[in-house]
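Show me any protein, keeping tokens residue-aligned.
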Amino acid sequence: MNKVIQFIKESYTEMTDNVSWMSFSEAKDSSILVLVASLVFALVIGGADSLINAALEFIYKAI
């Protein structure tokens, strides 16, 4: 049990003293970047899906 307590103490010290956390503004900027990139990616994939769907419908109606 003593090893578990020692591990928790060392983990807490590592997280509070040695880890460099980004600031709130950096986290906000990164989150906005991820959101915008996700939306652009979703629009590109959705557009490609619509084009492929329209092409397949055209082919199926022609047959």
Remarks:
- The mean pLDDT is 95.
